[in-house]
Design brief:
Elements: E1 13-21, E2 33-38, E3 41-44, E4 48-55, E5 57-66, E6 70-80, E7 85-91, E8 101-103, H1 112-134
Parallel strand pairs: 1-7
Antiparallel strand pairs: 1-4, 2-3, 2-5, 5-6, 7-8
């Protein structure tokens, strides 16, 4: 069967899956979600695996976290080939003001060590102040 004059077949497609996550201590992010941008076009998504069927080609992917605005941006260039399934992992940072992590392998939470140290110091300071007030 021949195609009508001027008909163009759709370009071959591949699939990009953005796998987004946040650390256990950031439970308040559960009700939000990541903001995904592919070549500047925003896509509202939920945490977890978010599949995007795209024509084969190269793309600039930017992911950030939606919470009291936007924070934790991370960017990566991705090439999707026809029939290919590409997974890009994003991990929100441990604190606002930090960048997120993104790559082709599962990512660690950036800034988790710093947040842990600051939390321990705050607890020690609170205990010292309480001891001074009670003495």
């Amino acid at each position: 069967m021949t195609q009508p004059f001027g008909y163009q077949a759709p370009p071959p497609a591949g699939r990009l899956v953005v796998d987004s996550a946040y650390g256990a201590g950031a439970f308040m992010l559960a009700r939000t979600g990541p903001k995904i941008e592919v070549d500047g076009r925003p896509i509202r998504a939920k945490w977890g695996q978010w599949p995007l069927d795209l024509p084969a080609g190269s793309y600039h992917v930017r992911v950030s976290t939606r919470y009291l605005g936007e924070f934790g941006p991370a960017e990566h260039a991705v090439t999707v080939h026809p029939g290919q399934h590409v997974v890009l992992y994003y991990r929100a940072p441990a604190a606002m003001g930090m960048r997120g992590s993104i790559g082709f392998t599962p990512q660690k939470t950036r800034g988790l060590g710093l947040v842990t140290v600051l939390s321990v110091l705050a607890l020690v300071l609170a205990l010292v102040v309480a001891a001074l007030l009670l003495s």
